[in-house]
Amino acid sequence: MDSQLTCGACRDxxxxxxxxxxxxxxxxxxxxxxxxAHEALVRGIHGEGAxxxxxxxxxxxxxxxxxxCRVRALECAKEAALPAxxxxxxxxxxxxxPEHCLRATLAAAxxxxxxxxxxxxxxxxxxxxxxxxxxxxILAAYRARGFRTAIDDFGAGYAGLNLLADFQPDLLKLxxxxxxxxxxxxxxxxxxxxxxxxxxxxxxRVIAEGVELAEEAKALFDLGISLQQGFFFARPALAPLPxxxxxxxx
Length: 250
Hints:
By secondary structure, the chain is of the alpha/beta class. It has helices at 3-17, 50-54, 62-79, 98-101, 103-111, 132-144, 160-166, 176-179, 186-202, 214-222; strands at 20-29, 34-44, 85-90, 119-124, 148-154, 171-174, 205-209, 227-229.
């Protein structure tokens, strides 16, 4: 990318950042009854939901939007004084060069005094990966810089076990499709149990996302998943953040 295009992308990022903010949803440790991290979720400054904001993103502004989200996530996390890690979704197809695309993130982290080791970058399986090797190079570059990494929506998209075989992230988030009514579904219980065992063997922590019922939360804990996220605990919210609803364990 030449310097003229780079400057244009920076202007696009600044313009997009002015129109977005971030809601945060906690990822809780149900055993410790603490917040492990907060996931940053994009919102419009006039109350627009994520779907409405994302509907305006295409190939022409994907890079600027990705950059803007990273910066706003850290700025909003600092403003909200989050007491835990902050998790940021990134768009792999927006990253042309990992090191160059990290410049704005690194500058924002330094500006708000947010440790790099307290940032999780989540790659979602819902975006089709056109270059698998490029994604692996992005994840490796992020890890080398000290960021934590996560595969989001595992079990619902394009990458699946192939990505996990090639790169072992710090965290793996099981998709809501595997979590829904897990307390009442023997097949889902077996799949989750084996995924937890597999991840333990390769050194990856599992997060269950999309938890909406106390019964789901308790079943997941019994299956070995202490890190959980979903409406049962708290909905995404702008600062100030609401109280968290924890489950009672035996």
